[in-house]
């Protein structure tokens, strides 16, 4: 039966691209809502690489971000990590990454998940006209961002969590609690490693 399903139905996989500096509950909720509402097979979190020139106090090493993503998704068997951008290093265009993935896995339909704040910028993305033919964009509504776009986007209504990585970093710097805003192991890792402090 599984073999039949594999030949008949294409696999549908959601890609959650981001810096995840650090990953937070907003990322997890949006990924789960897209997974379940669209009935996808899996969601892969895809951290971007840290460009060499970046101030590591602001964007910490990819290795640490990957570790925190892995810790965040450990309890969900439908969540995984896609490491191709981290392994390639430098700045990756989503178009190049998704073209490579699609060539490696022609049998997979990719759903590229973005927050509502990103949708307005789609016209500026590298090779966007080709990218929208390569992947199906999924937009997740986020507070106070416009939702108009000339590109085909599936909109998913999810509980709006007013959490961002910027907010998490600011709270850490100010000595405020981030418990229940990030997964428990992420809060532990940030504290033990002294991340995001001045
Ligand atoms: P930063 O504050 O550093 O920009 P971020 O919270 O936006 O970080 P990213 O890693 O940049 O996190 O985001 C990855 C993706 O998740 C982006 O598409 C972003 O729009 C989306 N996203 C992040 N937080 C939320 C949220 N609370 N609700 C909906 N989408 C979100
Ligand atoms: Mg952001």
Descriptive account of the structure:
With 198 residues, the protein is α/β, with parallel strands linked by helices. It has a single domain (11-193), classed as Rossmann fold (3-Layer(aba) Sandwich). It is 40% helix and 17% strand. It contains 9 helices and 6 strands. A 6-stranded parallel beta sheet has the order 3-2-1-4-5-6.
Write the layout of secondary structure elements.
Layout: H1 2-8, E1 11-18, H2 25-38, E2 42-47, H3 62-73, E3 79-81, H4 84-88, H5 94-104, E4 108-115, H6 116-119, H7 128-134, E5 136-140, E6 153-156, H8 165-173, H9 184-193
Parallel strand pairs: 1-2, 1-4, 2-3, 4-5, 5-6
Helix pairs in contact: 3-9, 5-7
The protein binds adenosine-5'-triphosphate and magnesium ion.
Adenosine-5'-triphosphate binds at residues 18-21, 26-27, 30, 114-115, 117-118, 140, 142, 161, 163-166.
Structural class comes to alpha/beta
Number of domains: 1
CATH superfamily: HUPs
Q: Report the uncertain regions.
A: none
Approximately how much helix is present in the residues? 25-40%
What is the CATH C-level name? Answer: Alpha Beta
Number of strands: 6
Q: In order across it, which strands form the biggest sheet?
A: 3-2-1-4-5-6
Task: Using the coordinates shown, work out and report the CATH topology.
Answer: Rossmann fold
Distance between the termini: 56 Å
Looking at the overall shape, the CATH architecture is 3-Layer(aba) Sandwich
Name every ligand kind in the structure. Answer: adenosine-5'-triphosphate, magnesium ion
User: How much of the residues is beta strand, in percent?
Assistant: 15-25%
Shape: globular
SSE succession: HEHEHEHHEHHEEHH
Number of helical regions: 9
Query: What is the mean predicted local confidence, pLDDT?
Result: 92
Radius of gyration: 17 Å
């Amino acid at each position: 039966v599984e073999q039949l399903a594999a030949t008949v139905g294409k696999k549908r996989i959601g890609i959650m691209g981001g810096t995840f500096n650090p990953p937070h509950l907003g990322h997890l909720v949006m990924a789960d809502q897209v997974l379940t509402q669209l009935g996808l097979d899996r969601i892969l979190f895809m951290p971007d690489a840290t460009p060499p020139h970046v101030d590591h106090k602001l964007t910490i090493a990819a290795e640490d971000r990957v570790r925190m993503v892995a810790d965040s998704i450990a309890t969900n068997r439908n969540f995984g990590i896609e490491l191709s951008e981290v392994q390639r290093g430098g700045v990756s265009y989503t178009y190049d990454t998704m073209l490579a993935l699609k060539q490696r896995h022609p049998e997979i339909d990719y759903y590229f998940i973005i927050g509502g704040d990103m949708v307005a910028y789609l016209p500026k993305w590298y090779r966007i006209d080709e990218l929208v033919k390569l992947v199906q964009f999924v937009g997740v509504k986020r507070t106070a961002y416009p939702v108009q776009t000339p590109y085909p986007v599936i909109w998913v209504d999810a509980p709006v969590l007013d959490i961002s990585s910027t907010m998490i970093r600011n709270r850490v710097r100010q000595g405020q609690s981030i418990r229940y805003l990030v997964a428990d192991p992420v809060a532990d890792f940030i504290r033990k490693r002294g991340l995001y402090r001045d």
